[in-house]
Specification:
By secondary structure, the chain is α/β, with parallel strands linked by helices. It contains three helices and nine strands.
Length: 187
Amino acid sequence: AGKTRLLSELLKDDIPPALFPVSSIERQTKLQLEITYGETAELSLIEREEDYDEAIELQKLTVFPSRDELSDNFLPETHRLRLSIPEQRLILPNGDGWGDEKIPMRLFLIDTPGWNSGEDDIAEREASQVMTGYHNLGLVYVSDANRLDGNVNQQHLKDFLEVLQSADFLQQAHLLFVVTHYPSKDQ
């Protein structure tokens, strides 16, 4: 809980209100959301089998879609939303460090559906399938502390930390853990 909100708070000055991917009323992330650099702010529905495949733009969107608008026609395994914004920090001026070429490259921040987020198969997959990105530079793990007390969530976290050890990172894995809400003292 809180991944989309964290990204939006960090980038809100660059995201037009109609494209803002946050709702306090419903779980918002049905499809993975790629946030990357673009000359102007644009939101698109894209299709891509693997992270390193070329994305096929299916549709430009003028507003961030509700979960109902992202019906069963768009599969979380192959479809994503892409939000391009004019944020210079999303350009890596000397490349990502994976290759020898020192050419500018776009950084992709990928917001994934959270565990226990409803009917979405992608959110309930095994941790090894959730690791997103062909070349990861880092992961931000966002959690509500109240969500970690159940056996299911504890097992998800344990599996995630085990997979993190062998994920595809440039050097050693970089993990930032953000807790969005703390339980009361007696919990």
